[in-house]
Automatic annotation (TrEMBL):
<dbReference type="GO" id="GO:0008234">
    <property type="term" value="F:cysteine-type peptidase activity"/>
</dbReference>
<protein>
    <submittedName>
        <fullName>C40 family peptidase</fullName>
    </submittedName>
</protein>
<keyword id="KW-0645">Protease</keyword>
<keyword id="KW-0378">Hydrolase</keyword>
<feature type="signal peptide">
    <location>
        <begin position="1"/>
        <end position="24"/>
    </location>
</feature>
<comment type="similarity">
    <text>Belongs to the peptidase C40 family.</text>
</comment>
<keyword id="KW-0788">Thiol protease</keyword>
<dbReference type="InterPro" id="IPR000064">
    <property type="entry name" value="NLP_P60_dom"/>
</dbReference>
<dbReference type="InterPro" id="IPR038765">
    <property type="entry name" value="Papain-like_cys_pep_sf"/>
</dbReference>
<feature type="domain" description="NlpC/P60">
    <location>
        <begin position="103"/>
        <end position="226"/>
    </location>
</feature>
<dbReference type="Pfam" id="PF08239">
    <property type="entry name" value="SH3_3"/>
</dbReference>
<dbReference type="InterPro" id="IPR051202">
    <property type="entry name" value="Peptidase_C40"/>
</dbReference>
<keyword id="KW-0732">Signal</keyword>
<dbReference type="InterPro" id="IPR003646">
    <property type="entry name" value="SH3-like_bac-type"/>
</dbReference>
<dbReference type="Pfam" id="PF00877">
    <property type="entry name" value="NLPC_P60"/>
</dbReference>
<dbReference type="GO" id="GO:0006508">
    <property type="term" value="P:proteolysis"/>
</dbReference>
<feature type="domain" description="SH3b">
    <location>
        <begin position="26"/>
        <end position="88"/>
    </location>
</feature>
């Protein structure tokens, strides 16, 4: 009887090992839920040890069934895989010769945004039929599982503060036309001191220099969504 029990336990242990898939050291995921519970074990019933929020990036150690084992403040913990988007699922693309290449998540945001160059400005628009400035940024990030605030002034509260000297592709850049600094325009930094945006009525989504006119003196800050 004792040997039978040991045999059953050994079999169960072997099966459980088969469900765990190790990840590379640099595997990361992005939280797509508004608030995601972090648990001590891969079970709903187990204690919640913390929370993650929409757009946060996590280091993934392994996959265990429908759960990801993550590094949570240097402690192994678990989150449900339904609410994590693996960065590698959209970080791989092809260059002009068909060779595989990898970019940062911010660069992928920019490449996606470029698909809508020439889309007309539509006040209140947040779809490929027409965008206003914040609607464009909202729509692009929504594709990456992140729900930003809808208007420019509120998007200035999303993500993390970035200095102008530290801008990276994918960062949200913010502009004001008034002395009080009220955010009235927003776009996505492309790199090389340029950004992509939906400017105003009568124009279309375009890439422009941040050194030109209003975009230079009206610049008030930037936010990074993926950290």
């Amino acid at each position: 009887m004792k040997k039978t029990i040991i045999g059953i336990l050994a079999a169960l242990f072997t099966v459980s090992l088969l469900t765990v898939t190790a990840f590379a050291d640099n595997e990361k995921g992005v939280v797509t839920a508004d608030v995601l519970n972090v648990r001590s074990q891969p079970q709903i019933a187990d204690n919640v040890v913390g929370s993650l929020y929409n757009g946060q990036t996590v280091d993934i150690l392994a996959a265990d069934g429908n759960w990801y084992k993550i590094d949570y403040n240097s402690i192994p913990a678990y989150v449900h895989s339904d609410y994590i988007l693996l960065r590698t699922s959209y970080l791989t693309s092809r260059d002009g010769n068909g060779a595989e290449k990898r970019g940062t998540l911010g660069e992928e945001v920019v490449e996606f945004a470029k698909n809508y160059l020439g889309t007309p400005y539509v006040y209140g628009g947040a779809s490929p039929s027409g965008f206003d400035c914040s609607g464009f940024v909202y729509y692009v990030y929504k594709n990456f599982g992140v729900t930003l605030n809808r208007v420019a002034a509120d998007q200035s509260k999303n993500g993390y503060v970035v200095e102008r000297s530290d801008l990276m592709p994918g960062d949200i850049v913010l502009f004001s036309r008034t002395l009080d600094g009220y955010i009235s325009h927003v776009g996505i930094y492309v790199g090389d001191n340029q950004f992509i945006h939906s400017p105003q009525t009568g124009k279309s989504v375009e890439i422009v220099s941040m050194s030109s006119g209003y975009y230079n003196y009206g610049y008030v800050g930037a936010r990074r969504i993926f950290k």
